[in-house]
Fold this protein.
Amino acid sequence: MIINKVNQPIKVGVLGFGGLGQAAARLLAPKGEMIWVAAADRQGYAYNALGLNPNTAIKTYHDRGSLGYLDADGTLSAHSIQDLVTNHSVDGYFLALPNLPNTFMADVAKQFIKSGWQGVLVDALKRTSAVEQLLELQKDLQAAGITYLTGCGATPGLLTAAAAVAAQSYAEIHSVNITFGVGIANWEAYKATIREDIAHMSEYDVETARSMSDEEVSALLDKTNGIIALENMEHADDIMLELAGICDRDRVTVGGVVDTRNPKKPLSTNVQITGRTFEGKTSTHTFTLGDETTMAANVCGPAFGYLKAGIALKRRGITGLFTAAEIMPQFVK
Amino acid sequence: MIINKVNQPIKVGVLGFGGLGQAAARLLAPKGEMIWVAAADRQGYAYNALGLNPNTAIKTYHDRGSLGYLDADGTLSAHSIQDLVTNHSVDGYFLALPNLPNTFMADVAKQFIKSGWQGVLVDALKRTSAVEQLLELQKDLQAAGITYLTGCGATPGLLTAAAAVAAQSYAEIHSVNITFGVGIANWEAYKATIREDIAHMSEYDVETARSMSDEEVSALLDKTNGIIALENMEHADDIMLELAGICDRDRVTVGGVVDTRNPKKPLSTNVQITGRTFEGKTSTHTFTLGDETTMAANVCGPAFGYLKAGIALKRRGITGLFTAAEIMPQFVK
């Protein structure tokens, strides 16, 4: 009951202003329980205690390349995150940053710890190794008074939480299989996300994918007819379900198909949880996402649901690192 | 992270020893993180700090009608719950009691409050009005140092939690539709549960169903060929999702089919969550339970997952009333 009460709007910042960051801004605009007050990109940041306008912000970012050029609210800065965090009051940040390089999210967390800022951080990172890096910061985050929720997008995130709920029917979990379908009309709207996906392909890694030019990405997608098909991906759903005590990480598999030329999903995103009941029966629960829900809705929606839950934890003095498999996200109105 | 640590087995009691209570005892037996130390029925109770044996307990209950007759561990008592709670050390209780009459669960909660016992209570009740009665005890539970998690079975419980997770993709929830299929080989194994189901039928209420003799139940089931088909049931999923801020209760519907003569489910239990995304699309997420999972697995599994989560809350000093839609259940090994 009490955990769920929000008395005044939560002041929210978004770090990173690519496809996800922009979707986050649009998603927040109509909310009453949250107010979008800040965002940062590589060259600058914007802040307005009364709320930023997503249309103006997105237009400025598209036209001039940084939120730092935003009239009145913008500040150009080569240390945009640090300057924003130090100078302005924000309750929680959604880290809508591509985790490229793979140490980036942990580096940002260290910046927050160092800054003395106390609040809630939520990320939508993907890789197991990235969560492992954050685990090393558990004590520092706690001591700093930061409540950090990791893996709070779609997968890991929404699907991991659904798996954690579903697991309750079983005495032992045999497998958790996540299969995602993503359809996007135009890959250039999600340049960083697509590079993160390419990094999972067999002949690529994070560094080679990150360093690809747009032309190289285009050429690769021409070869695959716009399709990126992925199997046995390094995805943090595995470590998150292991940390939640549900099953060893090697029982969790993640794969999917991304169609970069068609907003229609190539398959319905789903997670299948197979286990043995206390009565000795083997069975499978299935959670399937509606095809009309986009990656943006399935990533940003949960992220803010976890941010709201994180604020409730923080207000009770509960700090440190948590994953999406441990905490029930709270619906944001 | 920290929330999930269990250093010594949780001492668990089960109140009520009908079909659900017996299933709970069997489910707990192989667990390392929990130890089944106590159970009570109307005529007595059993307690053993080193753990009770489910086979012996169930045999004694069947043969003699009460756990109070259990050799060494049993005590006959007309105030079995009160005596058990007052005299023995138990960390948390699963209230596997039929809520007949409809005030029964709240009355039991009041008994716990009055007793001075501090610990975790979990119920698997079904009706909205029963949760409303517990809501009135919120402050008393908190003051008494009791962490009470309500609606923690299958529906409400597992399916409500899945709906709460699924809702995160949407800006607004249009409907949550729960449809359950239950197949049981022999209704007499779940005499109280079946009466709770009959109470939802159009010509019955809680009192008339409760007062039915076994012969009357049999005669009714002969007329329906063993099928109980239910629509628009009064089910607490609605108030739980409303309290969690997800949607008004009138957007939540619950119905289902119980086959009392066939262990095979007449349909696959599922919850469909329909909403509008921030991008204006309408879509439906679906969570479907594997047909091989029984009512017992889907009720008792979640109940103990919530009990473990409740212990973590209690250890942090968080007391009062919570629902299955607010808290992530924790997997019990």
Chain B touches chain A through 65 residues (CB under 8 Å). Residues 119 and 146 of chain B are 5 Å apart (CA to CA).
